[in-house]
Amino acid sequence: MSPLAPVLAAAPESFLSRVGGGFFVDLVVKVVVVMVFVLVAPLVIGYMEHKVLAHMQHRLGPMEAGRFHGWAQLVADGIKFVQKEDIVPAAVDARVFTLAPAVVLVPYIALFVVLPFGRTIWAENFDVGIFYTLAIGSVTVIGTLMAGWSSANKFALIGALRAAAQLIAYELPLVLASVAVVMQSGTLSLVGIAEAQHRYWYVLTQPIGALIFLAASLAELTRSPFDMPMADSEIIAGAYTEYTGLKFAFFLLAEYAGVVALSGIAAVLFLGAYQPLPFLGFVPGPIWMLAKVAALSFIVIWFRATYPRLREDQLQRFSWILLVPLALADVLATAVVKVAVR
Amino acid sequence: MDTERERALFSSQSEAWMLRGGGIDLVVDDGLRTEEMLLNIGPQHPSTHGVLRVVLELDGERIVRAEPVIGYMHRAAEKLAEFRDPLQVMVLMNRHDWISAFNNEIGWVLAVETMLGIEVPERAQWIRTMLAEWNRILNHLMFCGSYPLELGAMTPVFYAFREREMIQALLESTTGARMHHSFARIGGLKDDLPRGFVRQSREVLAWVRAKMGEFEDLVMGNEIIHARTRNVGVLPPGVAVAYGCSGPVLQASGVPMDPRRDEPYLKYGEVEFDVPVGTNGDSYDRLWVLVQRIYESCRIIEQCLDKLPPGPFVAPKLPKKIKIPAGEVYVRTENPLGLMGYYVVGDGGEAPYRLKMRTASFSNVSVIPELLRGALVPDLVSVLGSVFFVVGDVDR
Questions:
Q1: pLDDT tens-place values along chain A, 342 residues long
Q2: How far apart are CA B115 and CA B341, in angstroms?
Q3: Please, are residues A113 and A133 in contact by the beta-carbon 8 Å criterion?
Q4: Interface contact A2, partner B, CB < 8 A
Q5: B39–A154 CB contact, under 8 Å
Q6: CB A314 to CB B227 under 8 A?
Q7: What ipTM does the predicted assembly reach?
């Protein structure tokens, strides 16, 4: 029996359940809270990207919208997107074309449901939490494929196929890096994994796994230096080339939601989610979680400011020759240590 | 599968496609067969900076055939020159390659001065040399910045433009213009240097040198840049010479050809500088040569500042109306992008009877099909960005 079992058995209810009023009220409250978070967090990260990139590049970034350092820039962008004409080119498969942005965005929304922001601050606590997040996170590529295929555009097709190939290559190291953490903690539940790190963060015991997870999630998000699926200097915007207005805004929102989501998962797996640093226990858990998500997002943005993009074949080689064997070795080492320590 | 069919070099189908300007041909065929995909890049495409169009025949992501289609920016500069006097022509000449404007006008002015046999004062020649080198740095910084941008690194371009801005300010204080300087005159220059120019130049020079070190750290040592540019788009010296490549593209292939050193014009014979030469002729070497050329230009400017003599900035006895004498002349100069030749034929009138420009970009672009054969689509930007060209300079 896992030493964590008593902890898990004593895991409290979500704070959202305390509202009372039965299943449906509960459901509505949870959906509203998650939706608000999903719509706000990407805007914050998007604004952060604007500003961080700008300052790294010797410029100011948005300064006008909202009067104070352009804080409302992304809101203004959103309003602009709404006003744009919604162009559906004649040759596209209109139904698939329209559905694609939703298929890209919805999995990320569903993913936020399980992220723990405190011991009791989460919407759902599945027993198979990490399995659920990784599985649902990879649904987005279907949306990208749909967008690329239905666009009837050569650039879009190339971009979509690149995205699909990339996802297949990087899903494996991503899962394997998580498996090592799961083995160490002895639970699949995200809250359980976070609780298991109350003494030390897993980045200390799983440094290689953390690096693999970082690289693989950058590829999964198609962020620099793995952003070939939408390499703007080669294939315009990849699968999103034909999209305009609100549909395009959905893809953008999904991109930033993805950054928040995968930073969140990484924070749970390796940085102890809401667990504080020593002597700083007086700072509330949700602030720790948000700070960790922001810090990881900052690293993602930093990568974008620094690196050019790899070539598609180099990216595949990097995954299959380096990351996958390394991740397997990591899993093996974790297993050996786990048995030996026990 | 039909394996016996051989694909012609120019299949009539793709020719028709190119003439028509796009669209999809549906060929209904029994049995499964694969077909190359035709991909049209440009004339409006972010990586062809300008209106170059490249038609690619793709087998998966591998390029089977690449064909640059030029002429979208043809402005008939040579024909227009036949109806204008030398000063007006100069204004045309600094427009075809808009980021080496001063070097272009120098070439034209030298051609006319050679025909007329005008002696240009020492000071004017030194200033011309110096401004030409400042202009060269401007141009090279532009390409050094935009090349990583095409490879996906968005930061270097902003750093490059910070330095460009300082040099622009310097040139603006001298010539009054940021882009099309029109500062040279037949027999000298429009004006002398402004007060404080030498001191300010030295400051900017020190800054550019320091910041180029930063740029090299960020770009030239970057492993992904190495992965993307090493052994990509290798141009053997023989091919480069056969296509008439020049400038950084030729030097990267290991051919140390540089008119500044081989047949010095202006004051290039009296300053010390090296011609950097690459070893592999790949994209990385082309970028490396560009960076080295910036350092060499800095050296030349430093020497110009030291040796700048006092004196007039324009020849004292110039004819009121400059007429191009009967005869012909060919003057070649080293533009930032390569060899720039002006072939002028005069008939005693004010306007040249005929003007032919030999531009560097035209030859550099013509070698693109050689470089792209068998490359991957992502290599396209790596190659296009590194055979440095300006579309206006290609089409004129």
A1: 455 554 444 455 666 666 566 777 777 877 888 888 888 888 888 899 999 999 988 888 888 888 888 888 888 888 998 898 888 888 888 888 889 998 988 888 888 888 888 777 777 777 888 888 888 888 888 888 898 888 888 888 888 888 888 888 888 899 999 998 888 888 888 888 888 888 888 888 888 889 999 999 888 888 878 887 777 777 777 788 888 888 888 888 888 888 888 898 999 888 888 887 777 777 787 888 888 999 999 999 998 888 888 888 888 888 889 889 999 998 998 888 888 887
A2: 15
A3: no
A4: no
A5: yes
A6: yes
A7: 0.77
* Helix, strand, or coil (residue B117): coil
State the amino acid at position B263 in one-letter form: E
pTM: 0.81
Contacts 24+ apart (CB under 8 A), A229-233: A229/A144, A229/A159, A229/A160, A229/A162, A229/A163, A229/A166, A230/A159, A231/A159, A231/A309, A231/B152, A231/B378, A231/B381, A232/B46, A233/B46, A233/B47, A233/B149, A233/B150, A233/B151, A233/B152, A233/B381
Q: How far does B361 lie from chain A, in Å, by closest CA?
A: 20
Q: Residue A234: which of B148, B222, B380 has the nearest Cβ?
A: B380
- Write down the domain spans for chain B: 1-33, 85-370+381-395
Tell me which of 1.10.645.10, 3.40.630.30, 3.40.50.12780, 2.60.120.340 is the CATH number of domain B85-370+381-395.
Answer: 1.10.645.10
Judged by DSSP in three states, B246 sits in: coil
Each domain of chain A, given as residue ranges in start order, spans 5-340
Beta-carbon separation of B152 and A309 below 8 A: yes
CA–CA distances in Å: residue A281 to residues A198, A199, B201: 11, 12, 57
Beta partners for B65?
B57
